[in-house]
Amino acid sequence: MASDEEKKLEVTVSSEEVAAAKAEIDEEDDDEDVAAAGEFEVTKEEMSIMRAELACEFPDDYTYLSDAYVKSVASKPYSKDPTVRRPIEYTLEKLTHVMEWRETNGAPELESLVHLANGPETATEAVEQPEKLTKAKALVYSLNNASIYWHGVTKQGKPILWIRCGRKPWYPNVEAEVNALVLIADAGIKCMPEGVTDFVVVSDSNSPPPPVPSFMINVLKALVRGYPDRLNVLLSAPVGSIIQFVMNLLLPLMPGRLAGKFLLKDLPDATEILKEWLMHGEDDIPTFFGGKCDHDKYYPEEGYSKNRGQGTLKFDYFGMIERLQASAKEWEEMQKE
What we know:
Layout: H1 4-8, H2 15-28, H3 44-57, H4 67-74, E1 77-78, E2 81-85, H5 88-104, H6 110-118, H7 124-128, H8 130-144, E3 148-153, E4 159-164, H9 174-190, E5 199-204, H10 213-226, E6 231-237, H11 241-250, H12 256-259, E7 262-264, H13 267-277, H14 317-336
Parallel strand pairs: 4-5, 5-6, 6-7
Antiparallel strand pairs: 1-2, 3-4
């Protein structure tokens, strides 16, 4: 008789979907090996030129890209000649692709959907735009299980995105799940301490649901196209057959420099790594990794959550942002000591 893990792996992956994803990712990413080659100077004048161009092209969303991130992208070696810096035109092209991806995928409007779903269904917007309300409800339903959230920063000030795989649904609404991830990612990026441009992901990979290839491939495409150079490292523990299946599917699709950012560890090794990473060391290790920091106090399972407003939002989205802002401020103050 097949084990529960084996049953969960009874999924099919479309070769056409994988090939299309590979082609799309390869077309978008041509800086595979230059990120580790160092950085070059970017002048104030060059920064002003790039900011002005982005503000002109994307007046409603250009502030999403911080000066630190724009400078980080511009300072990288040029893929065609790593001995020189990326030309300004090339950097603007890459940043424009990010902003176009955000526009196409509706990223700037996602937080407004949270507000809509958190209000009464009798609100004017909800009544006049029922399709928008339906999308908003689907988004917050994906948030309500508290399977992804920001909590705390590392010793380097990088926000930490926690993934609770055991809380993920077996039969997800793929579009809503991807939207939820984009919404959460944007919230964390906006809360980054001054000068920080990337984040860390820690995955509690106990009891994951059956893998959904279309969801995983869409997440990877979003990471490459919408969040280049944002992921610093992803730590996943423990490593079972489902996580191995996921990595075997995604690794061949990943740019080389992204593949090197995934750490698959057992629980004891992961705990030691977290001691080194987390701002308060061992005190910040969550209970589900054998520590004493109770994340469930803020992010309980849906059955223990209450509605935040007059609508369907149960996940403490706005509290999460406040806590992350407080952690970022605490880290900034520590740098002054």
